[in-house]
Amino acid sequence: MDLVELSRLQFAVTALYHFIFVPLTLGLSVLLGIMETVYVMTGREIWRDLVKFWGILFGINFAMGVATGITMEFQFGTNWAYYSQYVGDVFGAPLAIEGLMAFFLEATFVGLFFFAWDKLSKIQHLIATWLLALGTNFSALWILIANGWMQYPVGAHFNADTMRMEVSDFMEVLFNPVAQAKFVHTVSAGYVTGSVFVLAISAWYLLKGRNAEFAKRSMTVAASFGLASALSVVVLGDESGYTAGQNQKMKIAAIEAMWETEPAPASFTVFGLPDLAAHKTHMEVKVPWMLGLIATRSADTPVPGISELVGIAQKNIADGLIAYKALATIKKDPHDAQARKELDDHVGHLGYALLLKNIRPDIENATQDEIVRAANSTIPNVPVLFWSFRLMVGLGLWFIALFAFSFWLSAKRQLDRWRPYLWAALLTLPLPWIAAELGWVVAEYGRQPWVIVGVMPTALGVSSTTTTNVTLSLLGFVLFYSALLVVDFYLLRKYIKLGPDAPQHEEAA
Amino acid sequence: MDYETLRLIWWALLGILLIGFAVMDGFDLGTAALLPFVAKTDIERRIAINTVGPVWEGNQVWFILGGGSIFAAWPSLYGASFSGFYLAMFLVLATLILRPAGFKFRSKVNDPRWRAFWDWALFAGGVVPALVFGIAFGNLFEGVPFGFDSDLRFHSEITLFGLLNPFALLVGMISLTMIVLHGASWLNFKTEGPVQARARAVMPYAAILFVVLFALAGACLAHMDGYRILGVVDHNGPSNPTLKTVTRIAGVWVRGEAIPAVVIALLGAVGALLLRRRPLMAFLSSALVPAATIATAGLALFPFLMPSSADPDVSLTVWDASSSKLTLAVMLGAVAIFLPLIIAYTGFVYRVLRGPVREQDLGGHSY
Fold this sequence. Notes:
The structure holds 2 protein chains of 2 kinds.
Chain A: H1 3-42, H2 45-79, H3 81-115, H4 122-151, E1 156-159, E2 164-167, H5 170-174, H6 177-207, H7 212-247, H8 249-255, E3 268-275, E4 280-287, H9 290-296, H10 306-332, H11 337-346, H12 350-354, H13 368-376, H14 382-411, H15 419-427, H16 431-444, E5 450-452, E6 456-457, H17 467-498
Antiparallel strand pairs in A: 1-2, 3-4, 5-6
Helix pairs in contact in A: 1-2, 1-4, 1-6, 1-16, 1-17, 2-3, 2-17, 3-4, 4-6, 6-7, 6-15, 7-14, 10-11, 10-13, 14-16
Chain B: H1 3-38, H2 42-52, H3 56-73, H4 75-84, H5 86-105, H6 112-142, E1 146-148, E2 154-156, H7 160-163, H8 166-190, H9 193-223, E3 225-230, E4 245-250, H10 259-274, H11 279-301, E5 304-306, E6 316-317, H12 325-352
Antiparallel strand pairs in B: 1-2, 3-4, 5-6
Helix pairs in contact in B: 1-2, 1-3, 1-6, 1-8, 1-11, 1-12, 3-4, 3-12, 5-6, 6-8, 8-9, 8-11, 9-10, 10-11
């Protein structure tokens, strides 16, 4: 594998590992806040036991989130140095603000949450718990503002004197519609993960016939919070779809395996076998109107297909080459006013020209044939996106059904009556993680070949380091993370089996 | 506010955030580095670990924030230093990855081998970052072999072996001794009995070693080639490091502006040594050591951030490696709002957790 592939693999592996722990932290922190609020309002000890028990599992998971999170921030510098140089002016700011506003808050109050049960009043401890939850959620907000900018780079411009992207309007970066939609979608997915976790483990206690009072209370909280969150994931996932339809037409077309433009109102393909080589989808099953409604919120706007978008990319590349040539002139003579004007007029497509760098280094001499090849490289991996998306949506619908049924059972006080239901709840345990990781694949793998859509091809962003270095670090991370993951599972299992009435340390027993 | 002023403020903030990291995370790194030696029994080790247990996560955010701020305010420096020092950074990350697990998982299984493993993992997580950051700073004084092409793409001939030269190792040892001193004075302050006695016994050695090594490094710097910008650079100019001329001159790193910081660093170490029977005073005194040591390095190097030995002209300086004026201004606003808040609630947390950690405090959620 070459440097780019190794660096991408390392990023994907470390991000997917990190994303095992993040959704659960997001969801459990809020659930802990809810449970402790009930404790403070009712004063009943069992609710404090709930907070303390789920808190142990939260803590084990939180430690792993911190361990895998450290790598993420520094990896931009170690492995994507040119990316950092090129867009740090825009992309670095939300990451730094995440530290200032969010991570300090969660990391400081997580200490009080665990260590200060006897040192704070009930209300003070409740506030500490909610500040912890607030910190984790703010953290997601700033990370997704940074990520949203990679998907839809608003509020920035290219500066020829510094050879990089710079912020022109910080408010646009902040209120990027893609970032907002992604934030609500992602934190809701985290809440679903936390709720499924609580629901499934409580179901296991009921199946074992133990800790019934504890388990039923936990399930009631998880069912109501989970139902609201699962509905929000799907509804706001739809909002994500709408913003992607506006800004990332290629991603939508790839998710739909829609090779040719659909006349309005576009139909939605429920099933099909996308064929990457033939640019066709076999055995399609389509629902009329549905895609048009999701992607355009109208019945009369066509949704462009892959072929049409590749054609547009070709024009953009040719246009971007004019900017690239003007930039070369400016590098030789920074005062060439003619070249600066030419750059200004075409700079919007400079990133498209850079796609040619994957084909030849002296891109100003690119042939028409190479431009066509570069334009074709803007097609993401259609079958992977098509299936990841459908599986994710299917899982989302299953969570709604499960939580709705749980909610109904809980209202009728029959949570422990139906063993098949308890088994279904238990077996759902791994599913939100699968959905979350698939969501990452759709969003980030679907962004390829871009690291920043329309601005920077992924391959250009890597550091000038050696494949030996990256191989070593990749193997190191995989080894460390996998070992820690085994320990994490072992400890979670151990504390789940010990259950809520066991003392928290063995030596105390 | 003009671009020059913003750059100067962000240079100072870079120092302040690194100092925040060295002072706050410094004592828990130091505690971890001393763990196998000052605490012998399992109870003693748990006491030592629990002095930092509730606060180390917050402290480590100074490191994360330091990295994030370099990314946002000094993007060229961020890419150059982290990719240039690739394997060194990997070593730091690998040992820091073990820390959360070490703290959280160690006491969750009652098996001596399990606990010994995590004790040594925590030890590595304390020693390696302290040593590597010092080594990195040492290399900054010597200059690092890197360059930029016309797209401002960074390239370097840095190797891990090349980083481990005698002067850099000396600075690495300075960093480690100051962290050990700070950790020992934290344990002296937060524990009682045998752990406190052993930590207190470490303090004179660490303080004297620090003073000796610090003076030695000063003597080396007086003979070493430093870097100077030739001619005038526009302090309000674009952030492009390829537009100036830089030369190397022996001894220019030793300069009057750094003297107050040097004095404070040395007085802090001596103060910690002399005041060790008044633990809080000694701890405050030892906190001055990493703070003033980082200030010394920053002031000596100014306006350089990362000098290049391969192509001195493209060295990164305060005037040509920053973010745009708008980003610096926005980020300054964010710091002005959130840093006071952070200091306020961190202060509250330390007040809640005040007092020494004793055996009877271990239990419940403690590590």
